[in-house]
Amino acid sequence: MVKVAPSVLSANFAELKKDLDSIQKYGADWIHYDVMDGHFVPNISFGYSILADVKKVSDLYLDVHLMISDPKKYVDEFIKAGADLITFHIEAMESEEKTRELIEYIHQHNKHVGISIKPATPVSTIEKYLNDLDLVLVMSVEPGFGGQSFQDMAIAKIKELKDKRQDAHYLIEVDGGINDQTGKLCKDAGADVLVAGSYVFNADNRQAAIDSLK
Ligand code: DX5
Ligand code: ZN
């Protein structure tokens, strides 16, 4: 069964605990935590100190999506704050050597590692890392903002990642513009984890929204 990871980017931060409790009660599997630095993407969200607070009040698996220019510089802070999975963008990395070092570093700290690709980045860019990854995050919108429309090209990438998986163990996660309809397309293509921000948090009935994604 597909996992649902509501993105707290669309939560009400003044009532964060209430929002986290509600999605946990309604069957969310993970919390997707979008970190934006105003440099890698044209928006600023939240950092590791709020993550540490989230960790204190929720038992859900913490899926941290780093949309930042220098993931290595801050990775220790996110590890300390309680991330379970740390996903960084391949577009933020300057070399294969640094990418491999970062994957290894996160694994040495007993955390899961993911790499994300923006809509214009082909799967071939990350092919050489696939055997070492716990997750690949396919962006179905340009990273930076919630509430955008799903871009169909994500479907072909999900299928490609599924075909390539063979002996590797990575999960395929998709992020951006997910609702009941686009979520179904992704599931049928082979996605294992659906991130949904506005569709879950803006729903009148969050239970129904999460159920419809599963
Ligand atoms: C976008 C973020 C997403 C965002 C998704 O840069 O990575 O996780 O919160 O929001 P929706 O589901 O509203 O498109
Ligand atoms: Zn995200």
Automatic annotation (TrEMBL):
HAMAP family: RPE (MF_02227). Keywords: Carbohydrate metabolism, Cobalt, Isomerase, Manganese, Metal-binding, Zinc. Signal peptide: none annotated. Belongs to the ribulose-phosphate 3-epimerase family. It comes from Longibaculum muris. A divalent metal cation binds at H32, D34, H65, D175. This is Ribulose-phosphate 3-epimerase. Its EC number is 5.1.3.1. GO terms for cellular component: cytoplasm. Substrate binds at S7, H65, G144, F145, G146, G147, D175, G176, G177, G197, S198.
